[in-house]
What does this fold into?
Amino acid sequence: MVTQNVVYRPGSLEEAYRLRTDTGALPLAGGTDLMVRYRKTAGLVPDPGRPVLFIGHLKDLRRVEERAEEVRIGSCTTYTELLSQKAVPEILKRCITLLASPPIRNRGTVGGNICNSSPAGDTLPVLHALECSLVLGNIRGERTVPIDRFITGPGENALSEDEILKEIVIPKAAFSGWCYRKIGTRRANALAKISFAGLYLIESGEVHDIRIAIGAVAPTVVRSREIEKTIIRIPRTSLQRSTVEMAARYRPLIRPITDQRSTTGYRAGVTLVLIEQFLTAVLQKKG
It folds into this structure.
């Protein structure tokens, strides 16, 4: 027997907040993750077990705004819409082009990818490396949470039962270059076995900033500011002789699983190679 779900389509963000508080309804934008998560036997309608709150049409949640020091992305902005925005960082655009298929990118949203909180979420390593923050809202107001404190485990996050993810805030920062790598069964339209995001800044021949974030190799995205600080402190000439050692410092943080897409050993080994290759490429830049 197929159960009939109650659905709500608010006319404003304020109404969405009220409905979220009053009914505990599940926010749904593109639905590309949630429809899979709550799927039932083939041929049956997905059933989340509670009311559904459609929010993907709300203009307050579907926009990109560039400010002097940051870029603010509405949580329901689709991947396709982000690709056409000059203010969106190029590393994020590159990630999106390797994410799923065009029909999925037309429906899927960056906010949905965040709130789904999968260790294999394609955009998550990029957003961690960019040090984005998330604005969460409800009828009482808003609060801002760094993304590395928002996602707490596979499918788990700090979103309260009465909150909606309103927007993603990306601080503007100068970088000399970036790297995004997705290891999957296919070039696109496949879940990541490993996803890697790297950013760096070189000034006067020295590394002044470096950020490395890796997805699908632990319960949450792996990023270590402590290791990054040690890399920055090492003179470039010395670092060039120790890229393998620097990459090895990430080994205790890499705790992948074996599943239908890959094995623990493969993920761990390839991750260290990706880090080493990134560091080697950075050192070859003149800056």
Q: What stands out?
A: Residues 205 and 287 are 5 Å apart (CA to CA). The longest strand covers residues 192-203. The chain has a mean pLDDT of 90.
